Amino acid sequence: MRAEAFRCDAAGVEFRALIVDDNARFLEAARSSLSRDGIKVVGTAMTSVEAMRLAEELSPNLVLVDISLGDESGFELVRELVERFPELGPGLVLISTRAEDDFADLIATSPAVGFISKSQLSPKGLRDLVSG
Amino acid sequence: MKSGLTLRMLLSGGALAVVIAAVFVLLLLAINDLRDSARLTRDSQQELSAADVLEKLVVDLETGVRGYVITRERRFLEPWNEARAALPAAARSLQRTVRDDEGHMGPVRQIIRDVASYIDEYASPLIRSVRRADPSASSIAVTAEGKRRVDALRSEFATLRARERAAIAARQDRADAAARRAIALGLAGLGGSILIVLLFTGYLARVIVSPLRRAAGMVGRLAHGDLGARMPETGAGEIGELERSFNTMASSLEVSQDDLRRLVDEQSALRRVATLVAQSVAPSETFAAVTREVGLLSGADLARMERYEADGTVTGVASWSREDDELAVGTRFALEGISIAALVVETGRPVRIDSFAEATGPIAEEARTLGIRSSVGCPIIVGGRVWGVIAASTKREAPFPVDTEARIGEFTELVATAISNSESRAELTASRARIVAAADETRRRIERDLHDGTQQRLVSLGLDLRLVQSSVPSELPELEQEIGRAARELDEVVDDLREISRGIHPAILSEGGLGPALRTLARRAALPVEVEVPTERRLPAQIEAAAYYVVSEALTNTTKHASASVARVAVEDADGTLRLSIRDDGAGGADPRRGSGLTGLRDRVEALGGAIAVSSPAGQGTVVVVELPLEHDPAPSA
User: Fold this and answer.
1) Interchain CB contact of B445 with A (< 8 Å)
2) Is B524 in Cβ contact with A121 (below 8 Å)?
3) Closest CA to B305 of B323, B327, B324
């Protein structure tokens, strides 16, 4: 089911994105940036608890999780999300202002589908990551 | 045994002298007797010969008279005349020989009178009558008269001689008896003297020579170090004095030697403890050593060291027992009732308790249970406060000698030094650890601030710029390009800043721990690095940071200097120690003291109580080994 849906996405079907980041300024910028290019940002969360709640309420199919969530760990949140919502797995993307190889080891063992640097955040990049 | 040997010698010598003198006096008396006897005998013989002369003269007179009467010739009167002339001298001579002998004086005078009477009353008238040619002169009667007179005289002479000879014989008998007595006396004196000399010699041997020989033997033993040698003090007089003096000397030597040995023991013990202190061994080891030395040196049955706690209790930190008594170490006691610990902390001075019989409280209770009779204790003063106490206890009746406190005191100073050193070291270590931890924390915070603030804003700004860029109308391509260039530059700034942040603190370390952090390091290194981190458990932040920076620095050195083809990083987490090794197959020959960033890491590692070792033999690669205790407690261990 999901795999089919993503193929549709690639062909223009909407993403329903949830962005989890503890920085309000970034959330705003990201929302604008993604919305501009056809990705619907259905919600933003600044904490793990909020993220879990919104993931349940909004049923997103794309979740961007900041690795450094203040005192919380993005990796941990990704594990919890996959545990609670297994169908979210292919739409889970880790983001960070830091470089990918700073966390390569952890990203590799994470159930997230991939990593994208915040400065390189773009709808195209996301689509490539999620559908590739 | 009070009488001197001199008196005994004098008495013995005196006895001998008396015996010998008596013998000699008796001998002298005997000799005198013999000489008197000989003189008397000589006198008697003179008397006899004088009597013989006189008698011969009488015979000559008679012969002359008889010849003249018969022949009437004058020439026959010559013997008469000669005899008459010699007669007075002979009579005087005989008288002289008996002048001391009253017994003989009478008969001698009688003889002389009778001779005179013969001459005067018979011979001379006869000669005259012959001269006158008187015929009666030749008569038988006259001749018989002359013969009778001469025979009477000769009989008197015979009697005198017989008496004299009897006297001589009697004297000879007496002299012989006296001589025999003298010989017997001399022999008896000789025998007695020999006996006395033998007895005296034996006595001297027993009283002087034998004890002296024994003394010589003892002195020999003493000279060869057997200070326990003693003599029976049974000798008489000066010998007894000598024996007592010898024993006194030996005792005094023994005491001196004991003192010396005690001093040597004490100095050795102090040196052993001082060596431990100088070697900075764990305080608990020093405490145990000191407690043992104090116990042994003071001759105690039990010794213990206790530390005063802030809550008014004491904790046993070390104990020693001569007979394996169970003593609590590590447990706390309340300072109730009478105890050495209570008195010491109260007075701050050495104290002693000579009896626990009346004492109350848990410590006194324990003392009684252990059979302790008396105890002595000294304060351990560190930095002006009473840190603890060393106490020695004995189960014997006799209390400790008076110098015990002073002797224990020597050790307490060493203990105080050890504690002070240890506290200083611990403070230093803790201070280094705090400095390193504070620096780490600061770096982590700066990195975090950069990330949460500046980096986020710059990244957001970049996203905004790109949004703006995409919104620029196509009629304004230059503007679009300008904005695009600004956005790319902004990306570069973000990259630079990320690089700087990473140098300040590796986020992966806080985020993922040592394993991911080391693997990230390896991935980013300029040469292949094999990483083996079997544990994924999180370790204390300062341990992880130290390990990370050591590996980072080692890999940097390898890349720069070693011309290595591969490096291996191995981490072991075992027995409470994190052990990491970084080895390469490079040129080796690295001097860890010079130019290496590892030197700077030594502080970090040692601040955590760890150790770092670099081995880099030329041509055999370089190995850096670091050990970090995971349960390091920078505070003193006791």
Assistant:
1) no
2) no
3) B327
Does the CB of A30 have a partner CB in chain B at under 8 Å? yes
Q: Is B506 on the interface with A (CB under 8 A)?
A: yes
Task: Quick: pLDDT tens for B563-585.
Answer: 888 899 999 888 888 999 998 88
Task: Tell me the chain B residues in contact with residue A26 when contact means C-beta distances shorter than 8 Å.
Answer: 456, 459-460, 463
Banded pLDDT at A20 (limits 50, 70, 90): very high
The pLDDT of residue B594 is above 50: yes
Q: CA B408 to CA A28: how far, in whole Å?
A: 77
Contact with chain A for residue B461, Cβ under 8 A: yes
Task: Give the pair of three-digit tokens for residue B478.
Answer: 């230059």
3-state helix, strand, coil in chain A (%, to 5): 55, 25, 25
Please, which pLDDT band fits residue A11 given cuts at 50, 70 and 90? very low
pLDDT over 60 (residue B596)? no
pTM: 0.55
- Give yes or no for B79 touching A (CB within 8 A): no
At B215, list the tokens: 């003394």
Q: Tell me the domains of chain A and their CATH numbers.
A: 2-131 (3.40.50.2300)
Number of alpha helices (DSSP H) and beta strands (DSSP E) in chain B: 17, 11
- Distance, in Å, from the CA atom of B454 to the CA atom of B460, rounded to the nearest integer, reads 10
Task: State whether residue B130 is helix, strand or coil.
Answer: helix
Of all residues in chain A, the one with the smallest CA distance to B505 is A102
User: Cα(B278)–Cα(A100) distance, rounded to whole angstroms?
Assistant: 53
Query: Residue B518's closest chain A neighbor by CA?
Result: A105
Amino acid at B415: V
Give the C-alpha separation, B478 to B484, whole Å. 10
Q: CA-to-CA distance for A63 and A82, rounded, in angstroms? A: 11
